[in-house]
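Wait, can you check?
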Amino acid sequence: MKRQKKKKPSFRKLLKTSNVKLENKLKNRQFKQQSTAKKQRKEQRKLRQAISDVSQKAPKPLEHYKTKPEDEEDEEFLESLPTDMMEEDDLEEIRAMAQKASFITRDLSSSAPVHAKKRKSDQPLEKYEKMPRKMQQSDEKELIHLLPIKDKSGLIPQSMEKPVVQKADEDEHDEEPEDQEEMEQESLLNLNPEEQLKLRSQKLMEKKLRIAALGSAILADPTCNIKKLKELRAMLMETDSCVAVTVRKLVMVSLMEIFKDIVPSYRIRPLTEAEKAVKVKKETKQLREFEEGLVSQYKFYLENLEQTIRDWKQKKQKGSQAVSLSCYKGLAEVAIRCMCELLVALPHFNFHNNITVVVVSFMNEPVKKVSEMCCEAVRKLLKQDKLGQASLATVRVISGLVKSRNYKIKPAVLDTLLSLRIKEVEVKKDSEDLAPKQKFMNFKEKKKNLSRMQRKVMKEGKKEMRLEVVSLKSSNTETLNIVFLIYFRILKKAQKSVLLPSVLEGLAKFAHLINLEFFDDLLSVLHSLVMSGDLSHKESLHCILTAFHILSGQGDVLNIDPLKFYTHLYKTLLVLHAGASNTDMTIVLKCLDVMLTKRRKQVTLHRALAFLKRLATLALHVMPDSCVGILAANRTLIHTFPKCDILLDNDMQGSGVYLPELDEPEYCNPQNTCLWELHTLKRHYHPMVKKYASHLLAGAPSEGSGALSIDLSRRAPSQLFEDYSVKDMTFNPPVMGPPSKKKVTSLQS
């Protein structure tokens, strides 16, 4: 008979048996728990019963034994013996034996033998036995696990105890500074001034060395020594009144320079919870710790600077009184200077908008030094900003400042907007318009020029550049909208404000970027301002320059005759300031360039001749720098309008007489006069004026003996005016005295 094989149990059977096993295990576990609980309850019951028995049991009276007469006599004899007969050593030994005797200390009422074993349940429990005992706990020293050492036997683990600072010592150190300061103040009062100065210089040198050591360590390895920034920043709270002000200033400047060196070239953002949970490399973790520590310390540093400035403005004095109230101004100036430096140096880093708000708010400060410092910092920021984001944030804050102060701010605040780089970027066309249409390359051109990978990289680079241009253009457009909003609000609500010259100068610079829809309204406003008569010469010149900037750009499509602006400029030329403080000549020369040279097709010959004659008359009574600029403008007019050379002859053209006092350039008959002023200017004491006058009399030739040098001929009149300004002149006019005989005879001849 064949042996039957065991059948494999089915899955359901296995599942059934496993459930039975689990139930049995659970029952066994519950039974064990119940049995242990029963044992514990039984022991507690016995313990309570023993305690109640001992407390209820009454003590038995002591038994009295009859003594024999012989024992009584022995006791009487021993008591009658004097103790002086016993030696001291014997007496002490007897007393010690008496204390150790067991029959004295044991319970005499019990009938149990002395050395019999007692059960635990029979021993009475005292109160101190019932109370929980406190074991003497020793301070557990924390261990730092080090890298193991490997030898022949295997790995040997290494560890060391972490040093623990005792709290008692810390409390003592906290209490010590107050007493130490009082003692130092008392000792300083006892010293003479020379000793006090010597002690101060010694303390100051120690602090300087400490600052230098910390700064050098941080700059040497910022990643590892980032915690030393906190130690250096703690010195901003220096409490030693002897050197507190100087030390705080030094620490402010040192931290500012350190942050400028160690701050990365990107913005640090906080990590998300998901990023923190991901396990990263050791180097990445170290970099994250460095960035987190840098941002936190930078934030605390800026808060300290802002608190110093706020204390100065609110005239608050701290409780420590380490710094007097009069010294807060110097500390605040250093803090503002540090913020200005960080504003310019770190426009890409965190908290830049916070710095911008603080610096812009102090641009309108009554203290001139602080105001100029902040305005210069904002001007530098706007000049060097290539991305447009920092400029946009700054212009927003300035707009809020102007509106909150109800347009009662310094003109220097609006003058900073002239440093915007919008004109340089917006003049260029889009890269899409400049890019030629795509052409397919044949095989030879592909092989000759670039590989496929190189063409791919170049294509990606062009896309990125195009995106950058688009983002820059959008930010510049938004910035320009805010700037024009500021200017138009002032033109509408504060026409008699001191801000009007700055507004007109700004409009003159950015007028070519204004939308065509506003041209008519803006020109009518400018004309009404010019004709009102309430403006100064400089303000009216700015109005004229703004109007012609509008017409020279997109305004070419408009059919507008600016004759009134020509007339106003012609009338204003003779009333300009002729002294050394003449600041209007630069604007006049710019107006002449825009009105006559760049609009040569819209200017009549009579108008050009009238301006040429009036400028020659103006050159007689101005300073040499202005005279050179005017003669250069006349040279440009002669080259632009060649028929103006009729003023170099004595012949009259047409009828009428020249009317120099008439303020209409079209009707003053300028063709019937000549430029006799040039002969007078040939005898001027300044050599450059002589040179230009002789050059114009020769017909302003471009070549030949009478021509100017290439350097002079290529310069604009406004540049020549700035080059030969009176402030920079090295040539001094001769001292006028009695004429000599030689000069008299030469004049007569």
Notes: The beta strands are 143-150, 155-161. Residues 101-112, 114-122, 427-437, 726-749 have pLDDT under 50 and may be disordered.
